[in-house]
Design goal:
Elements (H helix, E strand, L loop, with lengths): L14 E8 L2 H10 L6 E8 L17 E8 L10 H16 L7 E4 L3 E4 L2 E12 L5 E9 L24 H19 L5 H10 L7 E5 L4 E9 L5 E6 L2 E5 L3 E4 L1
Parallel strand pairs: 1-2
Antiparallel strand pairs: 2-3, 3-7, 4-5, 5-6, 6-7, 8-9, 8-12, 9-10, 10-11
Length: 254
């Protein structure tokens, strides 16, 4: 119990089910939520046959990488869920940092939660949610980290941990992720700790002050990346002192 009376989150609050193969760890978590699982469940798989990224993109999921999803049930009031992707990014960054050698390229986060090493993508994070028939809300955090394999992705430069000199296995990296996520979710505190999370995110952010293009569903907007606001929204300086707040989009540098 914390000094303020709230219940602290610890490693013992989480369970882990390791699968050899599944269509998608996110889909597996959602199926378990629909079947009544109480949440705080990690599902990992050595291989996915139907992994997916944002906007329904295929996520190549061969053996040798880490594929993990965390099922959370009613993790926060709906109005405070917007900062959760930032918290997840902070946790993943913390876990990868533990296995990178000292000479690796810079490890950074690209808004909102892509993990880059030397400006090359090494991790994708997909957060999905669904209201359940019994009134609960299931939120699934899917995390795919390139360890020894990487997709041929024309959208972004990509890398993997092996290219950066890291020798960690998927199991070792997941152990770090398991611990880091419990720590960060405790700090996030159902969205009440958004101030600390955004401060940590800013310390590891990539490209603040640089020219970026943000692809939205209906258009693309360019400007200077002015950072994030206290709720985690991207702030885009489009010129003449006008700052636009963006809740979701694909960011490209230059």
């Amino acid at each position: 119990m914390a000094s303020d009376g709230r219940r602290r989150i610890s490693l013992g609050d989480f369970r882990h089910d390791a699968l050899s193969e599944t269509s998608s760890t996110n889909s597996e978590c959602l199926a378990r939520a629909r079947a009544g699982d109480g949440g705080n469940l990690w599902v990992t798989a050595e291989r996915q046959t139907g992994g997916r990224g944002r906007r329904g993109r295929l996520w190549v999921s061969e053996r040798g990488n880490l594929y993990a999803s965390l099922l959370l049930i009613d993790p926060a009031p709906m109005e405070r869920l917007g900062s959760l992707p930032l918290a997840v990014a902070v946790a993943v960054h913390q876990a990868i940092r533990r296995v990178l050698p000292p000479g690796a390229e810079p490890l950074e986060v690209k808004w909102p939660n892509d993990i880059l090493i030397g400006r090359k993508k090494t991790c994708g994070i997909l957060v999905e949610g669904e209201g359940l028939p019994d009134g609960r809300y299931a939120l699934i955090v899917g995390i795919g980290i390139n360890i020894s394999e990487m997709p041929d992705n024309p959208l972004y430069p990509v890398t993997c941990l092996r290219q950066q000199g890291a020798a960690a296995s998927p199991e070792e990296l997941f152990a770090h992720l398991f611990a880091a996520m419990a720590d960060v979710l405790d700090i996030w505190d159902q969205g009440r700790g958004v101030g600390e999370i955004t401060a940590r995110w800013r310390e590891i952010a990539c490209g603040v002050g640089e020219k970026i293009t943000v692809n939205l569903p209906d258009r693309s907007i360019s400007g200077q990346f002015a950072g994030i606001d206290d709720n985690g929204l991207l702030m885009l300086d489009t010129g003449a002192g006008r700052i636009m707040s963006i809740a979701a989009g694909d960011v490209f540098f230059g």
